[in-house]
Structure formats: structure tokens, C-alpha cells
UniProtKB/TrEMBL annotation:
GO terms for biological process: rRNA (guanine-N7)-methylation; tRNA methylation. This is Multifunctional methyltransferase subunit TRM112-like protein. Belongs to the TRM112 family. PANTHER family: MULTIFUNCTIONAL METHYLTRANSFERASE SUBUNIT TRM112-LIKE PROTEIN (PTHR12773:SF0), UPF0315 PROTEIN-RELATED (PTHR12773). Signal peptide: none annotated. It comes from Panagrellus redivivus. It comes from the Eukaryota. GO terms for molecular function: protein heterodimerization activity. SUPFAM superfamilies: Trm112p-like (SSF158997).
Length: 127
């Protein structure tokens, strides 16, 4: 599961969950799958992702795989190639292969296996 995917997932479909975001990421294993840097894509995604949630997810990955994590979005982020490259790698190159996603409100756990998050809920868990 890419960290870009994680940034858009929510457990708001569960009963008694108002927001369900961001899901807490617990990483058992992760890998880095390099891809060609695309600054335009990164700039577009930075207007859509929740940057603090991305940083928290990256910190969870760093417990099993060393990665560079920018702690804040610089004022010149659109022209800062180093920052854009770091964010691109976080969004597109980090692949969580095993772990868990945890609902921040109910503590419901969703497993990640072979890079695929299982967000299926039981019938009695949804409205």
C-alpha cells in the first residue's frame, strides 16, 4: 500500500464513527520501489493530501525502513526540489507490504497483507 493511498483512506463507514481519519498506520514490513520523480504530480498531490497525516505515516514506516521525512512543508515548497523529491518518494515509492490500519475512534483494526489493505467490515459494523 502506498502512503498516497493511506492518506485518502477513512473508516467513516463504520457505525458510530464521525470522521475516521487519519487511520493509524502500524507497519510490520515495507519496501522502497523506486520510480521516476515527477514534480508536477507531487505539487498537485500536495494540494490534496493531509501533510501531517503523511508525516505520521512516514514515521510509522521509519520504524522498519529508514526513510527521509520532512517535518514541515516549507514556505517555498513549490520551488523546493529537495522537499518535492522527498515527498514524492514518500507518496509513491514507499510500499507498506504488511501491517495494520487502526480506526482512530473505534480502534477497529484493518490488516494490510501483500500491500493490500483489507477495509472490509462485517455487516453488523456498518450503518
Amino acid at each position: 500500500m502506498k502512503l498516497l493511498t493511506h492518506n485518502f483512506l477513512s473508516s467513516a463507514f463504520l457505525k458510530n464513527v464521525k470522521i475516521g481519519y487519519p487511520l493509524t498506520l502500524k507497519v510490520t514490513s515495507a519496501e522502497i520501489v523506486e520510480s521516476e520523480f515527477d514534480p508536477d504530480f507531487t505539487k498537485r498531490m500536495l494540494t490534496k493530501v493531509e501533510f501531517p497525516a503523511l508525516v505520521d505515516a512516514a514515521k510509522a514506516v521509519a520504524t522498519v525502513k529508514p526513510i527521509e521525512i520532512p517535518t514541515e512543508k516549507p514556505a517555498d515548497w513549490e520551488q523546493n526540489e529537495t522537499f518535492l523529491n522527498q515527498v514524492y518518494r514518500l507518496l509513491n515509492c514507499v510500499d507498506v507490504t504488511a501491517g495494520e490500519l487502526v480506526c482512530p475512534e473505534t480502534r477497529r483494526v484493518f490488516s494490510i497483507r501483500d500491500g493490500i489493505p483489507n477495509m472490509l467490515a462485517n455487516e453488523d459494523e456498518v450503518d
